[in-house]
UniProtKB/TrEMBL annotation:
The keyword Signal applies. Residues 33-187, 357-506 form the Pherophorin domain. The keyword Endoplasmic reticulum does not apply. Keywords: Signal. Residues 1-17 form the signal peptide. This is Pherophorin domain-containing protein. It comes from the Eukaryota. InterPro entries: Pherophorin.
Length: 517
């Protein structure tokens, strides 16, 4: 039946000579944003400057601004129901939660990603609807959009990442449309992520001969008992790309230019350094944007929403620092340069989040026992047909001093959905201590129903046996890891290590992969 409809539709489509894309349901009728038939002028527009408020939050200011000579419905009567933004299809990943506020109050409906029904294949918009604005209350209204990731950390967290810039514009410029309830009016505005410069540079700007060598450093530090995280090469290059785009955008807004684009200089695990150059009087024009840029760069590492579990216990520092060199690039040699190069600093300490697991009272602090769970699990095909294994690896660490510091590895508990159909998806555990090569099957032990706890017990590994040990959870393919493991992370499981006394139970989270913006 479906096939017949599809064929009929295909014939119709080709009969009309249109390139109708059946797979996605996008008709391709309107190649350009806002991807529909509507009047691009009307009573409303957005301020061309978007304000970044930290935490991946960007605010748009609405203006009532009726073009001269326009007296039709769109200019004189239309209301303002929704805001649409032209965004990259790659940002539309499952599970991303966007939020919005209107004049500081949560929007009545959360914004969402949508494929534009009449746009070309994959053309995507973010829609903020049910604004309820009209000619009398729209002027000055502020709509703020908070970008986030899904619980696995995937998603776009800056406007540079999110928006499809209009032709010729740099990253960070967004095309927007403001729709009336009947969708007939859609005045469009190109907006730009900008913070008004804090203080304009002093004195007249004139060409001097010095160069600002400006570096953005991402630095990780962690306290005792925490497995130190290292940035991956993929993260380094993604951060470098975003830094380059961020500075190009800032230079564009300051109506100036970069002397040498930002590129990755150091990717050492704990430090990522991305450097570029400005002629000093031009760097001075970009300097007022440095604070806002540093906040944006921080949200590349720690996106809005649940912070990545592998960074808990770490402090993330983003610095923008500049050195002045005497490279010769101009004719005049000034004794001293009065120009300030971009400088800023932002940091955030990430404490473990509070969750209602485990259900017993014990010390859940990471690092109390001499063992930890590695932050990423591996997967492999299961032993039983149609199943998959999620393998958690354990390592020895130097523990915090205290009563748990000299304990053995007795068992592990997982926070899991214990309702019948989900629970039946767990085939069992396959475990291997560091001193064994073969895996042994271990039947799962569920706590009383409602405790949402399943354990792999009777392990009793000493430090040597635990250091590199693996516990693989075998799940039937009919049950996804997201359905099985509970907690705020998608593709993540809470893994609770216990000693024999059950007083010590450091709690870890393992996810599939690090967040690459
Ligand atoms: C960001 O979010 C955190 C936690 O939700 C909050 O404590 C902090 O004040 C926010 N920062 C800004 C700049 O809004
Ligand atoms: C307004 O309309 C008049 C007459 O149609 C035209 O000459 C004028 O250029 C228009 N002004 C604008 C701003 O469109
Ligand atoms: C559309 O998106 C799909 C899935 O992300 C991708 O495989 C495909 O290449 C995209 N097509 C175009 C024309 O961008
Ligand atoms: C605009 O909306 C407000 C609140 O919904 C309403 O009280 C007001 O009458 C509306 N004004 C117009 C001109 O429609
Ligand atoms: C940034 O990193 C580079 C390379 O590691 C280093 O030379 C520089 O001193 C760092 N700057 C700051 C302010 O930490
Ligand atoms: C920097 O990169 C942008 C975009 O790739 C390019 O347009 C520009 O010419 C580059 N600037 C310099 C100085 O290389
Ligand atoms: C965590 O939750 C407990 C109990 O609900 C509460 O007492 C404590 O203040 C919370 N800690 C944080 C950091 O939110
Ligand atoms: C857990 O143990 C650590 C290290 O011994 C200690 O600092 C912390 O206070 C303990 N926490 C609780 C809740 O007992
Ligand atoms: C457990 O799974 C069931 C069935 O899929 C679902 O209805 C329930 O909401 C889940 N429980 C939790 C705590 O997520």
């Amino acid at each position: 039946m479906k096939l017949i409809i599809a064929i009929t539709f295909a014939l119709l489509a080709s009969a009309f000579g249109q390139d109708i894309i059946l797979r996605s349901g996008q008709s391709g009728q309107f190649p350009n944003f806002p991807y529909c038939l509507c009047k691009p002028t009307g009573a409303y527009r957005l301020d061309s400057t978007v304000t970044f408020k930290g935490n991946s939050t960007y605010c748009f200011k609405v203006r009532v601004s009726i073009p001269a000579n326009c007296s039709d419905y769109c200019c004189k009567q239309a209301d303002l129901k929704k805001l649409e933004i032209n965004v990259k299809p790659t940002c539309n990943v499952a599970g991303v939660v966007l939020t919005a506020t209107l004049n500081g109050a949560p929007a009545s409906i959360n914004p969402n990603f949508e494929l534009a029904p009449q746009g070309p294949l994959n053309s995507t918009i973010v829609k903020i609807t049910q604004l309820g604005l009209n000619l009398s209350n729209a002027d000055g209204a502020e709509i703020c959009l908070t970008l986030g990731t899904n619980r696995g950390g995937k998603g776009c967290t800056t406007l540079e990442d999110l928006c499809v810039p209009p032709a010729g514009a740099p990253p960070g410029v967004c095309s927007t449309a403001l729709f009336s309830s009947n969708n007939n009016c859609c005045p469009t505005t190109d907006v730009n992520n900008a913070i008004p410069p804090a203080a304009p540079p002093q004195g007249p700007l004139e060409q001097s001969v010095r160069i600002c060598v400006t570096c953005v450093n991402f630095t990780l530090s962690s306290g005792p008992g925490i497995i130190p995280y290292n940035f991956t090469p993929a993260q380094c290059s993604a951060y470098a790309k975003a830094v380059a785009a961020g500075f190009l955008n800032a230079a564009f807004q300051a109506s100036t230019e970069i002397f040498q684009n930002f590129t990755l200089e150091v990717c050492s695990g704990r430090v990522v350094s991305v450097c570029g150059k400005f002629e000093d009087y031009k760097g001075a024009l970009v300097a007022p944007y440095a604070d806002a840029l540093a906040s944006e760069f921080l949200s590349l590492v720690v996106p809005g929403g649940a912070p990545p579990p592998y960074l808990l216990g770490h402090t993330i520092l983003v610095t923008i620092s500049s050195e002045k060199s005497n490279e010769r690039i101009g004719r005049r040699l000034l004794q001293t340069s009065m120009y300030e190069c971009p400088v800023a600093e932002r940091s955030i300490p990430l404490a473990p989040s509070n969750v209602s697991f485990p259900k017993c009272i014990c010390n859940t602090t990471q690092g109390v026992m001499p063992f930890a769970t590695l932050p990423f699990y591996t997967t492999k095909t299961g032993v039983s047909k149609g199943s998959k294994q999620y393998c958690f690896t354990f390592t020895r660490i130097t523990p915090l001093s205290g009563p748990c510091a000299n304990t053995n590895f007795a068992k592990v508990e997982f926070w899991a959905n214990d309702t019948a159909p989900v629970r039946r998806g767990l085939k069992g555990f396959y475990v291997r201590s560091a001193t064994q090569t073969a895996f042994t099957f271990l039947s799962p032990t569920w706590s009383v129903s409602g405790d949402q706890t399943v354990r792999a017990t009777g392990l009793d590994w000493n430090q040597q046996q635990a250091n590199g040990a693996e516990i693989c959870m075998e799940l039937d393919n009919s049950v996804s890891l997201d359905a099985f493991c509970l907690g705020p992370y998608s593709m993540g499981c809470y893994v609770n290590i216990f000693d024999k006394s059950k007083n010590c139970c450091p709690l870890y989270t393992a996810i599939d992969a690090p967040f690459v913006p």
